């Protein structure tokens, strides 16, 4: 029984990690007032870059770093379109999803002689035990013998919390997302803040994507990300745009994703089809939005392009 | 005069965006060492080479028209229906259930299955419309979530009900099929089917509804200014729900006709088909008008079918077409032409003063 518990906890942490990273990325963007439907695409490009660069350099850390850079590069068109050109942010995000999947699958086919997936990555990130702590029963093996990306994700949540609520930068970011006109009157550069926020979202979603291709998995193909960017978006909403809320929501959704995958081992899927478990995060998010599971309300200015000098 | 200018600039935006998008595709091909001119030539010629290819191109265009209309109609009421993909899946599912579980005479069977698809799509779009109208919940997030629920719902029903634990259902009976042998043999045996007529009729319906009926006027008025519409005595809530449901029924029709005409069976899917998302690109490029959507769907259909052949002829991976689509969306959304002319005008005004 204890083994089962350990196994469930371990899988939850495993699948929650990429969701936490991407969802916190989305938090930066949306808190600054820019909707980011493009998280899915940013994770895709991160997963692709992580795998390809690791294959080329035989070093997963360089792969992770490259994935972060690629995430930033692909967040840039979204920022330019939705901030400078004042495009519809949802449309621009949809375009990023198209673009990322198209570019990455196209390049995989071009690089590896028409193959639909990359070769297997041998030098993936490996579990990093924290001596002593990993001996704690049940939670030890899950929390303190995790992939480096998991430690990174938890660190990012804590840093984001302090950045958001304890620093002038965080106050400006929130102000820009709630009332950009007032923020500008106080001397905050709305455009610059939003650019920074969208690029941070690219970096974090890119790292989350790399977690899928060089930590959990060991290759990239068309279905490596398959909706996890959208689950991250759901986690952002379910977690009410708050760093620790997002951590909780992403962990819960990671549990649902993990359970759908390992449910077979415990015979759970004979009672509940795995598809029903897969649906759970999406159903809960709709309920949360509708106000049945606590009211989820986003930043006031989210989705609205900002014009200087207007009213 | 102003209206004409605006129409011209919309058309110009679309045209410039398409050209820039193709340019992005060409750069992608150059980067990977392919010859873009040869590739595009192969793409175009293989879309029209034989009667068979023309038939297949038309088949590819049909669902794009319907999903484009779905996105476009909702947009006219100020709604962004990203849920077309999910409504498409439910349309497929409803049509499959009627086709496999009911025993009806030919033609009637097909008609009932198509109508079931439309109703399925409409019902799947009802909830996001209702939540938007009554609780102010943004339809974008709800429809994204419902896309995934639709995918898993379809999969679980195929596995546990519509087939005996298999990965796909058996083929639908010919009584429910939208294939029409005379039409198919006209195009060298291509899989072209009645879906194209459903799509064209739907485009006419959208035009008639929006510009020739009071309800349609209200839908557009709500999209233009919900507060003024409410003040003028229109029911904004009713319009929002109605718009989503009609939009969903277009998407459902697309799913039903693809299933009853093209594939003939429903399979478990690992990910979304993408046809629903293509509708966003079509509607955007077609400026949300029925005529524009027909043109845009034709362009995307030619690129999609021609692109899959280009892969065989020139070895260029098909995904370059997806990149071209994405670039076109970005350019249209950023309204690159308006931005350019504004800069130019500002400069001219400054120099004048």
UniProtKB/TrEMBL annotation, chain A:
Keyword field contains S-adenosyl-L-methionine: no
Pfam families in UniProt: BPD_transp_2 (PF02653)
Bilayer disposition of the protein: Multi-pass membrane protein
Membrane-spanning ranges: 12-28, 35-55, 61-83, 90-108, 142-164, 195-216, 222-239, 246-267, 279-296
Keywords carried by this UniProt record: Cell membrane, Membrane, Transmembrane, Transmembrane helix
Subcellular location, record wording: Cell membrane
UniProt-listed PANTHER family: GUANOSINE ABC TRANSPORTER PERMEASE PROTEIN NUPQ, SUGAR ABC TRANSPORTER INTEGRAL MEMBRANE PROTEIN-RELATED
Stated name of the protein: ABC transporter permease
């Amino acid at each position: 029984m204890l083994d089962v518990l350990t196994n469930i906890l371990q899988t939850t942490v495993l699948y929650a990690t990429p969701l936490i990273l991407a969802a916190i990325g989305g938090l930066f963007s949306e808190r600054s007032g820019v909707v980011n439907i493009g998280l899915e695409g940013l994770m895709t490009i991160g997963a692709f870059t992580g795998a390809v660069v690791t294959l080329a350099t035989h070093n997963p850390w360089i792969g992770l770093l490259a994935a972060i850079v690629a995430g930033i590069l692909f967040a840039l068109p979204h920022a330019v379109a939705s901030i400078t050109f004042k495009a519809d942010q949802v449309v621009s995000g949809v375009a990023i999803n198209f673009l990322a999947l198209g570019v990455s699958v196209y390049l995989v086919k071009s690089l590896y002689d028409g193959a639909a997936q990359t070769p297997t990555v041998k030098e993936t990130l490996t579990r990093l035990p924290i001596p002593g702590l990993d001996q704690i029963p049940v939670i030890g093996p899950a929390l303190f013998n995790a992939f480096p990306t998991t430690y990174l994700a938890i660190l990012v949540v804590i840093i984001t919390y302090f950045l958001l609520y304890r620093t002038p930068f965080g106050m400006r970011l929130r102000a820009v997302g709630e009332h950009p006109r007032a923020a500008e009157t106080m001397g905050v550069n709305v455009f610059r803040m939003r650019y920074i926020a969208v690029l941070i979202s690219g970096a974090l979603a890119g790292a989350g994507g790399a977690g899928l291709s060089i930590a959990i998995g060991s290759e990239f193909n068309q279905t490596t990300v398959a909706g996890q960017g959208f689950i991250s978006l759901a986690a952002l909403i379910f977690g009410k745009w708050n760093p620790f809320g997002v951590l909780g929501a992403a962990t819960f959704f990671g549990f649902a994703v993990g359970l759908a995958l390992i449910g077979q081992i415990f015979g759970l899927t004979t009672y509940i089809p795995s598809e029903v478990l897969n649906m759970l995060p999406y159903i809960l998010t709709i309920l949360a939005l509708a106000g049945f599971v606590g009211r989820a309300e986003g930043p006031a200015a989210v989705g609205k392009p900002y014009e200087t000098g207007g009213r | 005069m102003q209206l004409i200018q605006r129409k011209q600039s919309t058309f110009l935006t679309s045209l410039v965006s398409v050209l820039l998008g193709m340019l992005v595709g060409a750069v992608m091909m150059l980067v990977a060492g392919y010859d873009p001119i040869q590739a595009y030539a192969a793409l175009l010629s293989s879309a029209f080479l034989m009667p068979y290819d023309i038939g297949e191109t038309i088949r590819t265009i049909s669902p794009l028209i319907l999903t484009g209309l779905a996105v476009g109609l909702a947009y006219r009421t100020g709604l962004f229906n990203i849920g077309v993909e999910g409504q498409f899946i439910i349309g497929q599912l409803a049509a499959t259930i009627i086709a496999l579980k009911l025993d009806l005479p030919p033609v009637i069977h097909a008609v009932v299955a198509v109508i079931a698809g439309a109703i399925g799509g409409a019902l799947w779009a009802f909830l996001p419309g209702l939540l938007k109208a009554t609780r102010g919940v943004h339809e974008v997030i709800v429809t994204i979530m419902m896309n995934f629920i639709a995918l898993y719902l379809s999969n679980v029903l195929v596995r546990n009900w519509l087939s005996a634990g298999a990965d796909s259902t058996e083929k639908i009976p010919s009584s429910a099929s939208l294939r029409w042998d005379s039409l198919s043999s006209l195009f060298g045996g291509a899989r072209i089917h009645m879906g194209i007529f459903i799509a064209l009729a739907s485009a006419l319906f959208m035009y008639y509804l929006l510009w020739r009926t009071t309800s349609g006027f209200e839908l557009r008025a709500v999209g233009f200014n919900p507060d003024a519409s409410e003040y003028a005595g229109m029911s904004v809530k009713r319009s929002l729900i109605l718009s989503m449901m009609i939009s969903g029924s277009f998407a459902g029709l697309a799913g039903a006709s693809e299933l009853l005409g093209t594939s003939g069976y429903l399979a478990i899917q690992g990910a979304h088909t993408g046809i629903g998302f293509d509708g966003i690109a079509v509607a955007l490029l077609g400026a949300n008008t029925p005529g524009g959507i027909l043109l845009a769907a034709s362009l995307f259909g030619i690129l999609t079918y021609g692109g899959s052949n280009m892969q065989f002829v020139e070895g260029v991976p098909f995904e370059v077409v997806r990149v071209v689509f994405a670039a076109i969306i970005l350019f249209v959304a950023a309204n690159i032409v308006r931005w350019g002319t504004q800069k130019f005008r500002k400069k001219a005004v400054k120099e004048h003063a």
